Amino acid sequence: MRPDRKLLTAFLLAGSLLSGADIVERPFQGIVHILRSESEPRSLHIHIVKVDLTAPGIRFQLTSPSGARETVRQTTLDFLKQEQAQIAVNAHFFVPFPSPDTEVNLVGFAASKGSVYSSFEDAAQSYAIVARAPALNIDPSNRAAIVHYDPAFEDGQRLIEDVIIGNAVAGSAQIVTDGARTVPHYAGPENLLALLTPGGPNHYSNAKSWYDVLQARTAIGLSRDRRTLYLFTVDVRGGSAGMSLPEVADMLLREGAYQALNLDGGGSTTMAMEDPATHVRSVVNVSSDNPRGRAVGSSLAVFASPAVN
């Protein structure tokens, strides 16, 4: 998104211009917001939020379970307003989709305020979503970690890791693992154990990967010391041409992420924020669905204290 003159002025007053490509603001304690514009390899408009997990006032909230299925669809902006939080991004893939249904099931592990309500699973979209994809858990003390399915339990709601469950999100796959890019591949004669299954509506395979499509993307990451959480969106509208997931992984690595998950993207990609001066909450990226963003299955909200002058 290219900010209008008023928004650009606000960014410059709140932060600093690091280069011709980055506008940086620090709107709340523990929050750094980067608005990045790139011209190579194509026109891109990117938002990166870095959350200091040790900063006072930082806490999180994932969409709570409700309805006959697991959640009721809601735009990320409406969730941000409902919770009176400062930042929110869309999170899980969900089914049924596309569908007019307002009540949906999330794909993968989900927990809100310590309550697990969606299990690790084998997704029907095996050309895009790996079986029992890892999740990112943030416990009540803001200790964050990538967590994995424990096969010793059939309910799909137990973790191998000895952690306190707080708010947890899962996506299609882990795209950064221990400081290396780990975008999954498709099974074939050369690698029978690859994580993805060829097929899908566009006959995806290693020659034509869903992960290589230039699309709007949402991702979440964690630094090596687990002190910084990364929220990432890139647009495919408003003059931005989208990114592949290898490109997203590489950018997050350069920013300092040591682990990262790909979350729901395309028309679901949304980042919404509160203006620290006016307290008006709005979508800051350009949705490829509609100006207010798509109604999604879940969103992750970040609460933060006012910036200290």
Q: Would you write up a description of this structure?
A:
The chain has 309 residues and is mainly beta. It has one domain. The chain is globular, with a radius of gyration of 18 Å. It starts with a helix and ends in a 6-residue tail after the last strand. 48% of the residues are buried.
Oligomer kind: single chain
Would you identify the regions where 5 or more consecutive residues have pLDDT less than 50?
1-20
Query: How many structurally independent domains?
Result: 1
Q: Alpha-carbon distance between the termini? A: 28 Å
Portion in strands: 25-35%
Taking all Cα atoms into account, the compactness measure Rg is: 18 Å
Shape: globular
Count of DSSP-assigned helices = 3
User: Largest sheet at a glance?
Assistant: 9 strands, antiparallel
Q: Return the average pLDDT rounded to an integer.
A: 93
Number of strands: 24
Would you summarize the structure shown here?
With 309 residues, the protein is mainly beta. It contains 3 helices and 24 strands. A hairpin with a 2-residue loop joins β16 and β17.
Primary descriptors:
globular; mainly beta; five-stranded antiparallel sheet; 309 residues
How are the SSEs placed, and which strands pair?
Layout: H1 5-14, E1 15-17, E2 22-25, E3 31-38, E4 44-52, E5 59-62, E6 71-72, E7 74-75, H2 76-83, E8 87-90, E9 94-95, E10 103-106, E11 110-112, E12 115-118, E13 135-138, E14 144-147, E15 167-170, E16 173-177, E17 180-181, E18 217-223, E19 228-234, H3 245-255, E20 257-263, E21 271-274, E22 281-283, E23 295-296, E24 299-303
